[in-house]
Each structure stands twice: as structure tokens, then as C-alpha cells.
Design goal:
- The protein is of the alpha/beta class.
- It folds into three domains: about 130 residues, HUPs (Rossmann fold); about 130 residues, Serine Threonine Protein Phosphatase 5, Tetratricopeptide repeat; about 160 residues, DNA Cyclobutane Dipyrimidine Photolyase, subunit A, domain 3.
- The protein contains 21 helices and five strands.
- The chain has a five-stranded parallel β-sheet with strand order 3-2-1-4-5, sandwiched between helices.
- β4, α5 and β5 form a beta-alpha-beta unit.
- The chain starts with a strand and ends with a helix.
- The protein binds flavin-adenine dinucleotide (FAD).
- The site of flavin-adenine dinucleotide has 28 residues, from α11, α13, α16 and α18.
Length: about 475
């Protein structure tokens, strides 16, 4: 029987998988493909912990596919520019006419897929692309004038209206197919060997277990026990008040459709916003959607450019020493240092603290947001271009619908408000553990002398004025 390929990328699961489901509805038998691209990952600043997470999930995917009699071929092609040729060769070797995959929207991914499609079609073959990573297809959320939105609130309103008309349904599970053998001359790579190149700490492996079951349990648990308190607890970094699903959503261990379905399951799948927690969490999923659609509609954000053109000329400071202190959690501002150390040790940082750290870098230190964006990407287990770029451009006031440049977070006030007892700070900056809840947010101004902790590397008041002036001068 003829075979066809399913090319897995940012969608490492077998449940509710658009391309996999469509492929299995055909007569042909399926062979799965994953292409690893270490040099491309490096060029995209992907964190080792994220790659390790991806590879660990791949071992599970391989097992799950084999239970459906779908063999998985794993190959290495360092650069995406070489992928079209690679796939063309593979389709020749396997006598495959059709390749199935889910759409990826970042610019390089899109270029790679377009080139693959073109080459395959020259040889009379087809690459079928399905929408999967977002709730709504690319370019489908439009203003009344049929233009893309640039502001979040009306974008969200339109998304909510669409959801009211019907929630996106999940694809059914796939059947077990008849056994298919991969010809022996097809080269595979040894996953375990590749994994050894992306070693991470035990702490990270234990914090971020892989598998669809793990992600589904996290989701169900969050909906059952935490979503109702989400609105009130989501901003407090010492509480586990958020779902911690971002890393799972990012590489597609779970789908965003599954998240929305789980959210409305208690209402028997009806779109009823009967609780503020439900509405707030859905709003966060729409923020994810918003940044994906921004990336699709405004490709300049993928080219290291700010969304607001006038901010191209901002006089960022060249301050490598300050940048180094920020990355190492040695700025002398406890909440910032706590966040930056949490990131290094766990591959994750609480959203409120991400905003505080990003604003401190771009406003108080007046360092280019692109430097911070890169550092986050190099360390986040959930590193994802659209959300990361969106978060950074929001904080730097260079993005669409971003924080106004004159509204600069004071990290000490933020700390007093969102970590009043200093519980979060004490966890990540243990040298401050002996301080009282009054002293801990600004040990220097409290004139605490018995601790070994740096003085603030910048004066918060004057640096705030400096940032506002820099923006005013544009
Ligand atoms: C400077 C900065 C950088 C960021 N970088 C990333 C990144 O690389 N990858 C990433 O997934 N998120 C990023 N975020 C968004 C947000 O911080 C994380 O999605 C969130 O902390 C993940 O935790 P959670 O899964 O518990 O989220 P929850 O609060 O449970 O939210 C549910 C889901 O909604 C999505 N989401 C929530 N908030 C946002 C947001 N502001 N923007 C886009 N999507 C959101 C995520 O997929 C998240 O898993 C960034 C935010 C900032 C301010």
C-alpha cells in the first residue's frame, strides 16, 4: 500500500492533531517524520532546556505513534534552507506523494514550508498544511474594514464573539493502522545520543515532566482547583496561581483547543463566562492568540524591528556590565534578581516578574529590548517567538498596544504589592532570608548592613526620568 508522510514540528502529540487526523483519513498508510536542526535552533537562540524538553517529549511521541503502528523517522538537517531538498529525497526513497504538516507562522518556518511546497510540487507531490497552533486561522480575525487589529481589546472582543458562535472542537483519536515498515536504507538518528548533548539539571527535568497525560492532568487540575481564583492569584509569584502550561502549549504537547474545551467542560461545552477566573484565563489564551496573529500580519516584528517605527531611533545605552548584572540576578533590586535567578534555575519565570524584569532592563537600565528578548529565549523552557517578542515590546513601549512609555513600573512598589511578605524573593535570593517584610524589597534604602547583597546598580528615580526623556526626544 502507498505511504504518506506526517511531518511533526511544534505539535508533538497524537491527540487532537489536525494534520495527523487528516492524513489518517486517507487510504495511504502513514509514516511520521521529525527533523532536528541543531544549528537552526542555535541561530534562533533556543534554550538548552527547551530542546531537552522537546527531545524528551519526542521519545514519548515515538512510543505513542508505534502503538498506532506509525513508525517515526528522526533525521538531522542542521539548517532549514536544506530541508526542502531533504524532504524531496525522502519522498523519493519512500515513494511518497503527500506530506502532511501543521502550519507554523514565524517567518523562517514559513519560508521553509513555502520552499518545500514549491519543490515538492515541481515533482508532482504535495505538502498539505493544516491550521493547528492557534484557535483561529491566520488572517481570519479582522476589523470591519477587513484590516488586522493592532489593539488587543477589540481583537479579544471579536475572538469572544467567534467563540460564542461555537467552540473549536477537538479532532477524534486516530485508529491503529496496519503495520508499515520503513526501508532499512533510510537513515535514523539515535535520540538518546542527541539528548546527551542537551543535558539539563535534575531540577529542571523533575519540574517539567513530559507526556500528554502529564499536560492533560495539569490542565484538568488547574481547571478544577485554581481557575476560579485565577483572577486574584495570577499576579502573585509566590503562589502557584497560574496553569504552568506554556511550555506544553508551545511544543504542542497539548493543544489550545483542548485548553478551551477543558475550560468550558463544567458548562457542558457551552461558552458561558459565568466566572471572572474563567474569563481572565481565556483572556490570557487570547493574548497568546493576539501575538501569533501580530506576527503573521506584521512580519516586521520578526525582523528584529519594533512595531512602532518611531522607536527605531531610541538611544539605547550600550552597557554590557549592567546587562551582565541583570542576567545574573545581581542588580541589587531583589524582585528583579529573584526573577532572573528563577529563570536560570528552572527555565521559567512568573508572568508578573517577567514584566518587572523586562521593564527594569528597558527603562531603568535603558538597554535595548532585543538583548533581553534574546536572553529570555536562551533560557526559557517555554521560549516562543511571538509571545516573547510581544512581551518584550510591550514592556519596552515599542510594541503594538504596549505599556505607555511614561508608565514605568517601580520594581520596589511592584514587589511590595505582589510579594508583600517577600516569600518569592526569599526563595530565589536566599541571602535576604533574614530580612523583614518591610526591609526585603529595598535592602539598601533600609540600611541593612549584615547581608552580602549588591547595592542597586541604578538609581530608580533618576533612571526613570532618563527613560521618559529618551522617549520624549523621539
Ligand atoms: C517579557 C515577557 C516575555 C515572555 N515570553 C514568553 C515566551 O517566550 N513564551 C510564552 O509562552 N509566554 C511568554 N510570555 C507570556 C507569559 O509570561 C507566559 O505565557 C506565562 O507566564 C506562562 O505561564 P502559565 O502557563 O502559567 O500561564 P497562564 O497564566 O496559565 O496562561 C495560560 C496560557 O496563556 C498564554 N499566555 C498567558 N499570558 C500570556 C501573554 N502575556 N502573552 C502571550 N501568551 C500568554 C500562555 O500560553 C499560557 O500558558 C512572556 C511575557 C513577558 C512579559
Amino acid at each position: 500500500m502507498p505511504t504518506q508522510l506526517i511531518w511533526f514540528r511544534q505539535d508533538l502529540r497524537i491527540h487532537d492533531h489536525s494534520a495527523l487526523w487528516h492524513a489518517t483519513q486517507q487510504e495511504n498508510q502513514c509514516i511520521a517524520l521529525v527533523i532536528l536542526s541543531p544549528k537552526q535552533w542555535q541561530a534562533h537562540h533556543d534554550a538548552s532546556c527547551k530542546i531537552n524538553f522537546y527531545l524528551r517529549q519526542l521519545t514519548i511521541l515515538k512510543q505513542q505513534l508505534s502503538e498506532k503502528n506509525i513508525p517515526l523517522i528522526i533525521t538531522v538537517v542542521d539548517w532549514w534552507k536544506d530541508i526542502p531538498e531533504h524532504i524531496q529525497t525522502l519522498t523519493e526513497q519512500l515513494s511518497v506523494q503527500h506530506v502532511y504538516a501543521n502550519a507554523q507562522y514565524p517567518i523562517h518556518e514559513k519560508q521553509r514550508d513555502d520552499a518545500t511546497q514549491e519543490l515538492l510540487s515541481k515533482h508532482g507531490k504535495e505538502l498539505h498544511i493544516f491550521q493547528d497552533h492557534t484557535l483561529f486561522p491566520a488572517k481570519s480575525i479582522r476589523t470591519q474594514s477587513n484590516l488586522p487589529y493592532k489593539v488587543f481589546t477589540p481583537f479579544k472582543k471579536t475572538c469572544f464573539e467567534r467563540l460564542q458562535h461555537g467552540l473549536p472542537t477537538c479532532y477524534p483519536d486516530i485508529e491503529i493502522q496496519e503495520k508499515v515498515n520503513v526501508p532499512t536504507h533510510i537513515q535514523h538518528v539515535d535520540l538518546d545520543e542527541i539528548l546527551t548533548q542537551y543535558k539539563v539539571s535534575e531540577q529542571i527535568v523533575n519540574l517539567w515532566p513530559v507526556g500528554h497525560t502529564v499536560a492533560q492532568e495539569k490542565l484538568d487540575d488547574f481547571i478544577q482547583t485554581s481557575v476560579k481564583q485565577y483572577k486574584d492569584s495570577r499576579d502573585f509569584p509566590s503562589i502557584q496561581g497560574t496553569s504552568q502550561l506554556s511550555a506544553y502549549l508551545n511544543i504542542g504537547i497539548i493543544s489550545v483547543r483542548q485548553c478551551v474545551q477543558a475550560l468550558f467542560k463544567p458548562n457542558h461545552g457551552e461558552f458561558v463566562l459565568n466566572h471572572q477566573g474563567v474569563e481572565t484565563w481565556l483572556t490570557e489564551l487570547i493574548w497568546r492568540e493576539f501575538y501569533q496573529h501580530m506576527m503573521i500580519d506584521f512580519p516586521k516584528v520578526s525582523k528584529s524591528q519594533p512595531f512602532k517605527d518611531e522607536t527605531k531611533h531610541l538611544a539605547w545605552r550600550d552597557a554590557p556590565h549592567d546587562f551582565e548584572k541583570w542576567t545574573q540576578g545581581q542588580t541589587g533590586i531583589p524582585i528583579v534578581d529573584a526573577g532572573m535567578r528563577q529563570l536560570q534555575q528552572t527555565g521559567w519565570m512568573h508572568n508578573r516578574v517577567r514584566m518587572i524584569c523586562a521593564m527594569f532592563l528597558t527603562k531603568n537600565l535603558l538597554i535595548d529590548w532585543r538583548e533581553g528578548e534574546r536572553w529570555f529565549m536562551q533560557h526559557l523552557i517555554d521560549g516562543e517567538f511571538a509571545a516573547n517578542n510581544g512581551g518584550w515590546q510591550w514592556s519596552a513601549s515599542t510594541g503594538t498596544d504596549s505599556a505607555p512609555y511614561f508608565r514605568i513600573f517601580n520594581p520596589v512598589t511592584q514587589s511590595e504589592r505582589f510579594d508583600a511578605e517577600g516569600t518569592y524573593i526569599k526563595q530565589w535570593v536566599p541571602e535576604l532570608a533574614s530580612l523583614s517584610s518591610k526591609q526585603i524589597h529595598a535592602p539598601y534604602s533600609s540600611k541593612v548592613s549584615h547581608i552580602e547583597y549588591p547595592h542597586p546598580i541604578v538609581d530608580l528615580k533618576s533612571s526613570r526620568v532618563r527613560a521618559i526623556e529618551a522617549f520624549k526626544n523621539l
